[in-house]
Amino acid sequence: MIKITIYLDIIFFENLIMNSIILYATSIILKLKPKFFRILISSVIGSIYSIILYITEMKIYSSIISKIILSIIMTYVAFNPQNVKKMWKQILIFYLTSFVFGGVALYLIYFLKPQDILMKNGMYVGENILKIILLGGIVAFVVIKISLKIIKTKISSKDMYCNIKIKLNEKEVETTAMLDTGNLVKEPITNTPVIIVESSLLYEMLPKEILNNLEEVLSGNLSNIPEEIQEKYISKMRCIPFKSLGKENGMLLGIRADEIEVIKEDENKIIKNAIIGIYDKSLTKRGEYRALVGIDL
């Protein structure tokens, strides 16, 4: 029988490296700027838990609830999510990364068959486990990057476009829109999603006095707008804040449409009282699309 001496400081160091690799990979997948100090503190917390799990026989520390709580704490410390939705997204990616990492590490242990590795309380320990961790981290990271690249290439250009019909003032115009996952613009009062449309598309539906003076209207200067047009459209106008389209903090003039129909393959979706965000430039140089539709629509 082979006797193996296990040092707690080695276990701590091994888990510190493993947690750091997983957290760093998670931050890259989430497109977050990893903060070394936060990732280090989070990794230390996970390593301390590993030591407790190794030296104690109490089932409470190895329960699913304890591990979920640990994941929440580690994710919160590492990434400081701004809301609950972001936190759960980060926890999900953290788990997925951990599963890939764990699967690769288990395969390497099975493939290499090191004789000085044993399991206790669900943890692998031994002299060569650090080599497995480092090699597993590299392989897992490569697997994740390749998988993400394959997934992105599977999304064809056809899936990114749809046709929309805009109905306003008993007039209708149809155009091609791009499905934009980054379009999270919403009308701030009613939280209604906004469809961004090029102003040149709307000249048959809206008065040119409005479309030619978007900046003035947004600033409250209506001197170039005849009173009859103001009376008809002022109640439909909205000020839409946004952080896209090349601006960090900008404003769009929004108009409440009578109806917008989103046409995607054989499925049509009709949106009543939708908001149109009027963009005074071209969305694309080649004119492939003239509107942006958020994925939630």
What's the SSE blueprint?
Layout: H1 8-29, H2 36-55, H3 64-79, H4 84-112, E1 117-120, E2 123-126, H5 129-154, E3 161-168, E4 171-180, E5 194-198, H6 208-211, H7 214-218, H8 227-233, E6 237-242, E7 250-256, E8 259-264, E9 267-272, E10 275-279, E11 291-294
Parallel strand pairs: 4-11, 5-10
Antiparallel strand pairs: 1-2, 3-4, 3-8, 5-11, 6-7, 7-10, 8-9
Give the distance, in angstroms, between the N- and C-terminal Cα atoms: 65 Å
Number of strands: 11
Q: What is the approximate shape?
A: elongated
Query: Structurally, how many domains make up the residues?
Result: 2
CA-atom Rg in angstroms: 27 Å
Q: How many strands, what sense, and barrel or not for the largest sheet?
A: 9 strands, mixed
Protein model, in words:
With 297 residues, this protein is of the alpha+beta class. The protein folds into two domains: 8-154; 158-294, Cathepsin D, subunit A, domain 1 (Beta Barrel), CATH 2.40.70. The protein has eight helices and eleven strands. The protein has helices at 8-29, 36-55, 64-79, 84-112, 129-154, 208-211, 214-218, 227-233; strands spanning 117-120, 123-126, 161-168, 171-180, 194-198, 237-242, 250-256, 259-264, 267-272, 275-279, 291-294. Strands 6-7-10-5-11-4-3-8-9 form a nine-stranded mixed sheet. A two-stranded antiparallel ribbon has the order 1-2. A hairpin with a 2-residue loop joins strand 3 (161-168) and strand 4 (171-180). It is elongated and about 85 Å long. The N and C termini lie far apart (65 Å). 25% of the residues are buried. The mean pLDDT is 78.
